[in-house]
Amino acid sequence: MTDRALVVVRAGALTTVQDLGRPGHAHVGVPGSGALDRPASALANRLVGNGIEAAVLETTLNGCAVRARCAVTVAVTGAPCAVTVDGRPAAWAAPVTVTAGAVVEVGHAVRGVRSYVAFSGGVAVDPVLGSRSTDLLSGLGPAPLADAAVLPLGEAAGAPGRVDVAPAPGPADELVLHVLLGPRDDWFTKAALRMLAVGAYRVASASNRIGLRTDGPALERARHDELPSEGMVLGAVQVPPDGRPVVFLADHPTTGGYPVVGVVRGRDLTGAAQAAPGTPVRFVPVPVRR
Amino acid sequence: MRPLPVGEDALLVECASGEEAGALHAELLRRRSEGTLPGVTEIVPAARTVLLCGLAEPRRFATLLAQWDIPPMPPAMRETVEIPVRYDGPDLAEVAAMWGVTAGEVARIHSQARFRVAFCGFAPGFGYLTGLPERYAVPRMATPRTAVPAGSVGLAGAYTGIYPRSSPGGWQLIGTTDAVLWDPAREPAALLAPGTPVRFVADGAL
Known about the structure:
Chain A is mainly β. Chain A has 3 helices and 20 strands.
């Protein structure tokens, strides 16, 4: 009998199961969640013959290691890193055949933050509200990986991708975020909006799957009354009382009471997923016609 | 109503009041079930706004919205959810003092009010319930508790909320319920969704 499962050998700093998340439940307070770097998780899935909705592992900075209890095809994408199978070097961003019992080691990110590890058949933990994603804000989905944990795998469906090495853009040295201004840009002073464009910001170490926090000049508010709670979107640039912009990522709260100066363009969020603490951030405000 | 663009594909519709936002939300749900609402991925009501996500043409939708004739909040389309509660919270005496009544009166006033879930947030299944008159609004605690037990019934502003699970929190706790607010294995997982009418039933009064 084949035991289609993985055993966690080294969980890493923070490794979670992620898929496309659980959109459609924000009205009852459920975050969208899901893989932060969607193109990378989709590529990893395609390389092993999965649909892009299959669940993968998302690592944070220092990778992880798992033992496959069955023969499986594996692909690692996202943050570039060393990949080994039973200690022998294997390709990054390419389908790798792994025999039953072998250990797949995903190394430290050379650049970027999050590597994605796909397995043929996908990680098959029980879904919650239609998704297998770990949501770190609300605790839905499986717990982050722990050493010796066992993760079931699904049955492999498609044939592995035929590309040998898929081209994947690496993380940039500077994170450029185009920000469509609003809905609450009028809660900030003109000087604050100029500061957003020219201020020297960096990714703060307190960043996580909920939000990319920044260090840099505070944005001054023009209005000081309390904003009644309102719905929050992925990519919202919320400005808490300390004035440092926070970019909402997948596990962001569904409502919030701090003003949102603007919203980061969807395609720039991939870069936000891979920006390590200390990375310079350049906000490019884009005025929106009302 | 003022529609504000949010990013590439969302619209935040700002309303004059919570009631107007509730009426707009009900109308959006009605049109969605009727099949006449453009495709959206989320409809998220909040204190005075409704957020629509995943619109193919947000600007065009904003123009259409301006022409809508929105009826005032319709009578509840759902059955009232009755929540049994023991009025035994650690802040009951303090709330009674702020209201200028006895603890027993707090229980009576609270269990006689007719509530509606205005919106959800903070945690899955956590509803912000309106229905208490504004004069009973209370401030949040200056120092939030690090752990509020699941099932705690609390007040903040004129809202009532019930903690679906143990979490930190700053609401003034007036009671406890055994009702299960959130169960992902249940359909629907959330006992309270925006628009749900709610009544609190004092334990022993059922």
